[in-house]
Amino acid sequence: MSSVVATGLKSGNKPDLLSIIHGFEGEVNDAVFVTGQNSILTASEDRSLRLWVMRDSGRYWPSVEKILPSPASLLVFDSLSRRICSGLDNGTISDFKLSDDLNCLNHTRDILAHLGRITGIICVRELKLLLSTSRDKTVAWFNDATGEQLGSYNLDAPGTCLQFHVDSNCLFVGDSTGRITLLGLAKGRDPPTFELIRQLHGHTGSVTSMSWDSLSSRLLSASIDQAVIMWDIGGGKGSAYELQGHSKAVSSVEWWYRPILQKTTAVSDDSASRSPPVGRTHTTLTVSAGLDGLVFFWFMDARRQETPTWGEADLCQLCSTPFFWNVRKMWTDKAVGVRQHHCRRCGKAVCEKCSSHRSVYPVMGFERLVRICNDCFKAIANEDLKSLASSFDARHPISRIRILGDANLLLTIGKNKEVKVRAIKAIQTQLPVFLINSYALYLSVVPGVGSQKLPVISASKLFSPSVLILTLHRLLFFHSAT
Fold first, then answer.
1. Residues 428-443: what's their mean pLDDT?
2. Are 270 and 451 in contact (CB under 8 A)?
3. pTM for the full predicted model
4. Using DSSP, how many helices (H) and how many strands (E) does the chain show?
5. Residues 150 and 64 in one domain
6. Residues 6 or more apart from 465 whose CB is under 8 A from it?
């Protein structure tokens, strides 16, 4: 009998929608917060660069607009110099300076950087360098003061995003094949030169976004393969942890350091597994968004495990049934070959009969139902399967997100020509978890109430009217008790 262990991964306290910016004639490619000014810069396919200022009503209204020679694919804003770097589809980097009264965008220079759409820009103030990558399969670096090109590096595929680690002078370049190339700044070279260090392989599709954690030297990468990977660069062990929750391409990922409030320092036993270490002043979360319209908040202070490497075999590693390409074994056993599957917990190559169960496994980042072999399904019966993530539906397919951490604001840029501003301070970090399997039915309610064990229910009777009525009754009872 097949069984499932399902979690009700629902939103806790949904972020408050503060404002919606619309009225664009083309799809919005990027938007950034203007720090400390209650303003937002947007770039869209209609070739406009607009500054939106929040009025007393709480709504954003356009203050100034520039029409660019080509659509801007991304924006970088420096709050200290009030400088705006815009990467254009035609390969040009256009710089602007925002006036103090927010009424003027002064064009300062153009850099003919690439031959294709610019997909990544980083300004390294410490090295006085401007770094960029493009669909033309190159990474280029420039003297940030003069705009003079100092060098370039040829990639094997179009570049899609950039991140830079200042302490080690290491540049991370994501590309359309799913690889992440690490380039190091060569010592004693004049002009500065970047050289290949190594490549990270983990994604099966184009890398869409990256984010660097300067506090613990960890890299986040998102991809169209629906996965987010956290690379523990500073740990020195080569560890990589997957986060699987989206049902479509993950388009953007960011780190969020949420301050720990004094009143939340005492946590229940249910939340201990995802609480930050004693002495920490903040909770570390990964925020990811995708074309499915979902925004996930992943609790990164929790204990997590690496996903196993998938095994390869000619026979099922549990029952020894031959797979369909093992003709000799099929002939010897007079058996029909079967398809090969993989258990997401142990990585074994198994047949359908030996992997008929589905379960979440949050400690490995699986917040959606995945295939589990029979042995692992028995092993996780007594494990803690509480969710280590929270999510909400943004109601539009998201191409990019921006976080203003000090103000607890989230910007979601949709492919429906809308930009939404939300307050994320009230995001709930303790979630109700609804666990169902062939052994027992549990309901993990809000912190302080605990878990209540209910009668054993078989999977075949899982969706009978009596069970649904019982479940609804207990849900209402626990909700009223809290």
1. 36
2. yes
3. 0.81
4. 3, 36
5. yes
6. none
Query: In whole angstroms, what is the distance from residue 246 CA to residue 227 CA?
Result: 7
Q: Rounded mean pLDDT of 312-338? A: 86
Q: Which domain holds residue 47?
A: 7-306+385-423
Strand partners, 442: 435, 453
Q: Are strands 129-134 and 138-143 parallel, antiparallel or unpaired?
A: antiparallel
Q: What confidence score (pLDDT) does residue 52 get?
A: 95
Q: Kindly tell me if the per-residue pLDDT of 19 is higher than 80.
A: yes
- Listed range (272-286, 334-348, 395-409) with the worst mean pLDDT: 272-286
Kindly state the tokens that stand for 197: 């260090």
Half-sphere exposure of 310 (CA within 13 A, CB side): 12
How far are the Cα atoms of 83, 209, 271 from residue 478, in angstroms, in the given order? 53, 41, 18
The CA-based angle 182-183-187, given to 5 degrees, is 140
Q: Are 202 and 238 in contact (CB under 8 A)?
A: no
350 and 285 part of one domain: no
Tokens representing 123 are: 């300004």
**Cα gap 428→23, rounded to integer Å:** 32
Contact at 8 Å (CB) between 306 and 315? Answer: no
Degrees (nearest 5) of the Cα angle 382, 385, 390? 170
Per the structure, how many domains does the chain have? 2
Please indicate, yes or no, if residue 444 is contained in any of the structural domains. no
Q: pLDDT (tens digit, 9 = 90+) per residue, 93-122? A: 999 999 988 889 999 999 999 999 999 999
Q: Is the dihedral of CA 54, 55, 61, 66 positive or negative?
A: negative
In one-letter notation, the amino acid at residue 374 is: N
Both tokens of residue 243? 């986060």
Q: Which residues contact 456 (CB under 8 A, 6 or more apart)?
A: 439, 440, 441
User: Which of these, 13, 15, 5, lies nearest to 433 by C-alpha position?
Assistant: 5
Contacts (Cβ under 8 Å, ≥6 apart) of 375? 318, 346
Q: Are residues 375 and 407 in the same domain?
A: no
**Rg for the chain (alpha carbons), in Å?**
25
User: Using 50, 70 and 90 to split pLDDT, how confident is the model at 56?
Assistant: confident
Compute the average pLDDT of residues 230-255.
91
**Could you count the other beta carbons within 10 Å of the beta carbon of residue 293?**
20
The tokens for 292 are 């499915």
Mean pLDDT in residue range 243-254: 96
Average pLDDT estimate for 52-76:
93
- Rounded to whole angstroms, the Cα distance separating 249 from 30 reads 17
CATH number for the domain that contains residue 98: 2.130.10.10
Summarize pLDDT for 291-306 with one digit per residue, the tens. Answer: 999 999 999 988 899 9
Mean pLDDT of all residues belonging to the chain: 83
